[in-house]
Amino acid sequence: MKKLNYLFGLLCLFVLAGCSPYSLVQDTVYNGADLRAYTTFRIITPGEGKLPPGMTMVTYYNIASAIREQMVERGYTEDASSPLLINIGLTVKKEIATEPLIPPGGYPYGGPYYGGYGPWFMYPRGYYWPAYYSNAQVITGIYREGVLTMDMVNIADKVPLYSSSVATILDDGDTQFRNLAGIAQAVDVLFSKYPVPLLPQYRK
């Protein structure tokens, strides 16, 4: 009976996971980074860079809040002087495409280098993403798909540490991850393969 209940519980989890409108499309650790070695973090602020097109201040604060919660629940402490900087990028596009992070003759700035489709990052990637990553690809969208990307970088040494992206199909006219529940779910998926697990008290 216990085994049957266990199997039923697993089936429910698979069904719920399959119904999620968000999917992890990229999850990469760079430079063999040990993300457990960091104890503090900071999230990019609007004062350090422009918001991506279509992202409002409310959306930014909601995304930052969801990321902050994930980091705190993994034992990190927010600190404005932390070398671990978390950058946020947003892409909206209408077709499947991958593009180099660094376009020919350009910089990985997060500007309109991909036919006007970003990804736009709040903090210029050119400051911390060196040229030897020029063969890396970034997913820029699938149909009317929005892609939320998170970079983690040791900003003191300008060394990329980690990047992940989550995607969702957008309704006509929609340009961003809007509501609180949706943002929380998207960020939960964004951290679903993060190398540092939740602290025991936060595990479901």
**Class by alpha and beta content:** alpha+beta
Distance between the termini: 23 Å
Order of helices and strands: HEEHEEEEEEEH
Strand content is 25-35%
Round the Cα radius of gyration to an integer and report it.
Answer: 17 Å
- Number of DSSP-assigned strands: 9
Characterize the largest beta sheet: strand count, sense, and whether it forms a barrel. 7 strands, mixed
Quick check: average pLDDT?
Answer: 75
Explain what you see.
- The chain is α+β, with helices and mostly antiparallel strands.
- It is 22% helix and 27% strand.
- The protein contains 3 helices and 9 strands.
- Strands 1, 2, 3, 4, 6, 8 and 9 form a 7-stranded mixed beta sheet that branches. Strands 5-7 form a two-stranded antiparallel ribbon.
- Strand 8 (145-154) and strand 9 (159-169) form a beta hairpin.
- Helix 2 (57-72) packs across helix 3.
- 32% of the residues are buried.
Keywords:
single chain, 204 residues, alpha+beta, two-stranded antiparallel ribbon, 9 strands, 22% helix
Describe the structure in brief.
The chain has helices spanning 2-18, 57-72, 180-190, and strands at residues 22-29, 40-43, 77-78, 84-93, 97-100, 120-121, 137-141, 145-154, 159-169. It has 204 residues and is an alpha+beta fold. The strands form two sheets. Strands 1, 2, 3, 4, 6, 8 and 9 form a seven-stranded mixed sheet that branches.
